[in-house]
Amino acid sequence: MLRKLPGTEIQHVVSTRPDTSIVYTPTVFKTPAILVVLAWTWRLVAGTAKTVVRHPIASALVWLGVAVGLLWGWRAVAGGVAGAGIIASIWAGVSPRTFMRYAGWRVVSWWRWMWVYRRHWGGVMAVAGLVRSVRGTGYVPDLVKVVSSAAADTVTVRMLRGQSLEEFADRVANLAHGFGADLAVVRSLRAGWVTLVFPRRDLLAVTIPARPLPVLPEVDSVEIGVCEGGEPYRLRLHGTHVLIAGATGSGKGSWLWSIVRGLLPAQAAGRAEIWGLDPKRMEFAYGKGLFTRYAATPAGCADLLETAVAAMQERADRYAGVQRFHVATRRDPFVVIVIDEVAFLTAYQPDKGLRLRITAALATLTTQGRAVGFSVVAALQDPRKDVLAIRNLFPVRVALRLDEPDQVDMVLGDGARDRGALADQIPHDSADPEIGAGTGYVRRENSPDPARVRAALVTDADIEQMSLRYSAARDSW
Ligand SMILES: Nc1ncnc2c1ncn2[C@@H]1O[C@H](COP(=O)(O)OP(=O)(O)OP(=O)(O)O)[C@@H](O)[C@H]1O
Q1: How far apart are CA 439 and CA 206, in angstroms?
Q2: A biological process (GO) annotation for this entry (predicted)?
Q3: Which atom of ligand 1 is the closest one to the Cα of 341?
Q4: Is 123 labeled as ligand-binding?
Q5: Which are the contacts of 466, defined by CB distance < 8 A and separation ≥ 6?
Q6: What pLDDT digit, counting tens, does each position of 263-314 carry?
Q7: Domains of the chain, each with CATH number or no CATH
């Protein structure tokens, strides 16, 4: 083996153990001291400038402390720190919200940047396989910014040139464990940049009570629940169609009822109509007085869908050449057709004639309804294509808890699971059905990154209250 080594390198071989790669003694070049001093000075200046640019407030405080110390001595610095501490405590006591917003979270962000991320950055990147070596020099993705909130740390990273988002997405588990989080979500920011979100406290772990009924009639979007960061989550309805997929007990009902709840004031004002299709007779029957129209039998559902198609086409004829977009009015209300377990109507329906009628009506509504104010919201358990061939006609899709990892991309589109939509890992406990129920990932129309959200639970008591207030004793069925 040694004979095969080229030329003089044989002299430098220091290890030839069979279980390790060959190690050579390094060739030492004597660098002039002045070059070493210049290189270190340059690194110091560049590092300081970078720190000042990235952390202007913290840097200014440090410089201020140094200046005060030089001018008036360390007692003055200690007095200043104590004074600032007292002011901060009073501020935090009087208005904790503004204190955290303008000062507290900045300090937490800085601390976590330094203690959690900066300290372990190189090591975690190397172990996760995100460091690249080019001609013997190692390159590490650049940790640019950390923003902490009650819910999560959001870490902004500049990738190495030539690196892709997918490389980070493939290593979410390594990154999460490396930085002491339970999970990590990778989001694209812009070309060459990536955002890593490390949830710290799961704001979605608790059941969210039904959202307040809107004060004004709303049709564009309705408040469904809460986003991962704690902000309200609104689902757009007008001008789109929504597919909600989730295993049994995943909480599809809370999504459907939150949609109904959010539209009730608009329906009462005559600007919206909610049509309910309830083939299992389990979901909407309890509050069927809340729907403008309601059907439960397969034949009734087929008739209702065809009625919707006819109304949609009549509206499209009227609009042709006159108006291109729908505006919800009393004459032309926004019609939302809410369907529980659509597979009962499309795949499991034994009557082929009915199945074909229903599939054709659904395809027509989902391809032509958006512009004229007809939206379909459908829920189903099994997202396979043979169960709902037209699933791609739903621009907004929601993946609640799913049984298998493959189903995530079936619902949210290719690569969604790699981007952090771990719908197959949403917790479930048959002893406590509320655990994880209503939690899901949403792929929005304008972003490839899935968002984790949780719908509010609309209880039977909420439905009773809504019925008392809004049931207009409809006689349409
Ligand atoms: N958003 C939520 N928050 C907390 N608990 C919820 C939520 N949604 C549903 N649950 C709980 O989970 C249980 C199952 O919910 P739900 O019936 O809506 O599931 P599903 O997906 O419609 O199931 P199936 O397909 O079998 O009808 C409910 O009884 C309720 O206790």
Answers
A1: 10
A2: cell division
A3: 25
A4: no
A5: 213, 260, 261, 264, 287, 290
A6: 999 999 999 999 999 998 878 888 888 999 999 999 999 999 999 999 999 9
A7: 37-199 (no CATH), 221-475 (3.40.50.300)
